[in-house]
Design goal:
Layout: H1 2-9, E1 24-29, E2 35-39, E3 45-46, H2 61-72, H3 77-84, H4 88-106, E4 114-123, E5 158-166, E6 171-178, H5 183-190, E7 199-202, H6 207-215, E8 218-221, H7 235-250, H8 259-270, H9 276-289, H10 296-300
Parallel strand pairs: 4-7, 7-8
Antiparallel strand pairs: 1-2, 2-3, 4-5, 5-6
Helix pairs in contact: 2-3, 2-9, 3-4, 4-8, 5-6, 7-8
Length: 309
């Protein structure tokens, strides 16, 4: 596994993960036989896992490989922790380290052609133990698990997830705002993710008019019978909403601060056309070779509502 990771990460030549220099040479081995390198420019020593999500975890790479397999199978954290012989808190942290990296893959998505866009809403959730937190204070009394919002309809107690799907099966979705959608919220989510010249199919919400004009895309409002038939409809994005809701419900509640990660997981699992084995290989490779180090403190201390200001 170490050889695989080294070959993949340094496929275009060895570079220092600290400064990016290619003035790199071998520098002996660790006790377990892992090859070490040293950068002649910054003087730092490193291995193939340095500055990656596996860095500092003190677990062999085959454990991570098993974890990715469990993740793709949709196993629970407790079941995954048991099979990988790690603590369930470690299993939770690893899940979001991998999904944080997957976010970078999602950030490269640009939808073209006919693009359907719509929004769906979920109750704001501060799920988690905050008794000992030094950085977070609950802004309201805690809700009993499964308790509905006090306000009816769309309100500041609902987080809006803006979603877009094209006819090739590509999807992009992200938390936008609290309550009703404004033009700035559409730009916050969809800027650089819908190609100029694309055709945007939406419902009759007025905010899309200004967004389409400013983004140089053609707008087609779909309403009534038009939303169910004809070339321009929003049935695919509505189906995306349904599957996303079912996916989140199967997880027994998701904290709003981690919701973007679960959205990316859902899109990767259900809306990419690769076979299961290919998806597992893509996730494993991308998670290991992406230069991104994430600590457990960074996960727990992230902002509770990553929405547009």
């Amino acid at each position: 596994m170490n050889e695989y990771l080294s070959d993949e990460r340094f496929a275009n030549g060895r570079v220092c993960p600290c400064c990016g220099s290619d003035a790199v040479s071998k520098n002996g081995h660790q006790k377990d036989g892992t090859q070490r390198y040293i950068c002649k420019d910054c003087g730092k020593s490193f291995v193939s896992t340095t500055n990656s999500i596996t860095s500092g975890t003190r677990k062999k790479l085959y454990v991570w490989e098993k974890y990715v397999e469990c993740m793709m199978l949709g196993l629970s954290l407790r079941k995954t922790a048991m099979l990988c012989k790690i603590h369930r808190n470690t299993a939770f942290a690893w899940r979001h380290k991998i999904l944080d990296v997957l976010q970078e893959m999602a950030d490269e998505i640009v939808l073209d052609g006919i693009v359907e866009a719509d929004e769906t809403f979920f109750a704001v959730s501060y799920k988690g133990n905050h008794k000992n937190s030094k950085t977070f204070t609950m802004p309201r009394p805690a809700h009993t698990c499964g308790k509905k919002s006090k306000k009816r309809g769309i309100s500041g107690e609902k987080v809006c997830v803006l979603c877009a799907v094209n006819r090739n099966g590509l999807s992009y979705a992200k938390l936008g705002n609290l309550g009703r959608v404004a033009n700035k919220d559409l730009h916050f989510v969809f800027d650089n993710h819908i190609q100029p010249g694309a055709t945007l199919c939406t419902d009759a919400m007025p905010s899309y008019r200004a967004f389409a004009s400013e983004s140089n895309v053609k707008l087609v409002h779909s309403k009534g019978k038009e939303s169910r038939c004809g070339e321009y409809n929003i049935q695919r994005v509505n189906n995306y909403h349904k599957k996303l809701g079912d996916f989140l419900e199967s997880l027994n509640g998701v904290s709003s601060k981690y919701l973007n990660n679960y959205i990316v997981w859902h899109s990767f699992s259900y809306y990419t056309k690769n076979a299961f084995e290919e998806k597992q290989e893509i996730l494993l490779r991308f998670a290991f070779i992406t230069p991104k180090k994430i600590t457990n403190n960074q996960l727990s201390n992230r902002i509770p509502l990553p929405v547009a200001c």
